[in-house]
Amino acid sequence: MHKFANPTQFMRIANAIYPWAAGLSMILFLIGVPIALVSSPADYQQGETVRILYLHVPAAVMMQMIYYGMAAGSAAYLIWRHPMANLVAKASAPMGAIFTALCLICGMLWGQPMWGTFWVWDARLTSTLIQFFIYLGYIALADAFEDPERGDRAAAILALVGVVNVPIIKFSVNWWNTLHQPASLSLTKSSMTGDMLLPLFLMMGAFGTFYIAVLVLRLRAELLSAKIRNARLSQVAVSEATAAAE
Amino acid sequence: MSVFSALLARDLKLALRQSADSMTVVAFFAIATVLFPFGIGPEANVLARIAGGVLWVTALLAALLSLDRLFTVDYEDGTLDQLVLSGAPLPMVVLAKVTAHWLTTGVPLIIMSPVLALTLHLPAQGYAPMMLALLLGTPTVSLVGAVGAALVLGTRRGGVLLSLLVLPLYIPVLIFGTASVEAVITGVETNGPLLILAGFAVLALTLCPWATAAALRQAVE
Is A81 on the interface with B (CB under 8 A)? Predict the structure, then answer.
């Protein structure tokens, strides 16, 4: 693992993954979107609105997965001072926030025709909203210090504190008797038909590979901006040294 | 344990000598609560319906305001560096400071709450569960708030950031705190929400001192 603390080593692998993730994501979107939006069957109860869920469910899955990844990265950063783990967590946070927003927006658009309201204060909706605020808090805290390293460490601690909320979202529909239905899909059994599962899996795969591809791009940008910062600092140091010499 | 009692005594003495600080928090609690009848209108049945929620929200905001000075003074005058360097177990130090914070802000809020409930026409049977809920909920508020207060030490815009970090984590306490008042008014068993609040308090007591200690350590490095 310590081998990958070196940004060059880490990016060598990340760059090798990038074209595969980006290409696979594009292919999965090109196959998945037409199936999800056109050729898959309409639900016998929900009608055509069921198609919204092919965006809603993968976004919700990404929201949770990204947060677990961020928490793991933050833990690795706090315990071993692993710089790349922190960079991955930091680069993931805005994407996590956007997937959470997408999940909430899709859910609201689906809720209006199905439940007759855009929003209910039910346990899962509320805890998802809390998750959104935790993402925003992480982004704000990481950016709030003069010294970027202090921001990194404070945000990492916050990520670990906020991890309490993720299982609450997951199990809220089982613990409380709420309007939001429990999961139709688990590792061992499924209450959905195959022609609905196919687009769901395609869209999940598309979202996941999309995240990996964008993550690599964001990591590149983060490393470049760190390089620019260092170059500027050394430039200032050099010009100050020459000014002092004169 | 001697570290705990010494720090607790110190913080309580400091709070007592600057008792205006605690009074300000209670005064904020009162004025914020009193705004609601003006905003919503004086009908007794409407106010009675929302009394539990209003008291909880204003109590949370009052506690949030007081969190600012939990570590800032010690951070600025260097006491915090001494505490971290002293070798005393830092979670214990945190626990002492949080206990002092709870005694000087949480307890005054609990004592003040029945008076304010009176102005909101809270039904008579609601007083006991409301105070019990505050008694069980405010320790969680102080403990979770301490994590946030330690994280924002040395930031450019501490206060606003603190509210963004801490308020989302207060929502569960708010939900079950309000639920225990509502339950008694609608005639349902109140034990459920109160037990969950007690569970939150135990969970916060076991986890928050360590998270706060980690945050303080990185703040003074």
Answer: no
Instruction: Give the burial class of A94: count Cβ atoms within 10 A of its Cβ; 0-12 exposed, 13-18 middle, 19 or more buried.
Output: middle
How far is residue A86's CA from residue A78's CA, in Å, rounded to a whole number?
Answer: 9
Is the sign of the CA dihedral B194, B199, B203, B206 positive or negative?
positive
pLDDT tens string A58-73: 999 999 999 999 999 9
Distance from CA of A42 to the nearest CA of B (A): 37
Instruction: Mark out chain B residues that contact chain A at CB-CB < 8 A.
Output: 147, 151-152, 154-157, 161, 164-165, 167-169, 171-172, 175, 207, 211, 214-215, 218-219
Task: Determine which helix (DSSP H) or strand (DSSP E) holds A202, and give its type and residue range.
Answer: helix A194-245
Nearest-neighbour CA in chain B from A130: distance (Å): 5
Task: Measure Cα distances from A224 to A29, A92, B3, B39, B143 in Å.
Answer: 29, 17, 48, 52, 39
pLDDT in tens, A27-53: 999 999 888 888 877 777 777 788 888
Cβ <8 Å between B152 and A78: no
C-alpha B212/C-alpha A62 separation (Å) is 29
Q: Is the pTM of this model over 0.90?
A: no
Q: In whole angstroms, give the CA distance from residue B6 to residue B95.
A: 12
Residue of A nearest to B165 (CA): A137
- Give the CA dihedral A168, A174, A176, A177, nearest 10 degrees: 150
Domain extents in chain B = 2-220
Alpha-helix runs per DSSP H in B102-157: 107-119, 127-151
Residue contact A153–B218, C-beta within 8 A: yes
pLDDT digits (tens, 9 = 90+) for B29-67: 999 999 998 988 888 888 888 888 899 999 999 999 888
Cβ of A130 and B164 within 8 Å?
no
How far B155 CA sits from the closest chain A CA (Å)? 5
Contacts of A160 in chain B (CB under 8 A): 211
Domain residue limits, chain A: 21-40+195-246, 49-176
Q: Which residue is associated with the tokens 């710089």?
A: A83
> Which neighbouring-strand residues pair with A47?
A43
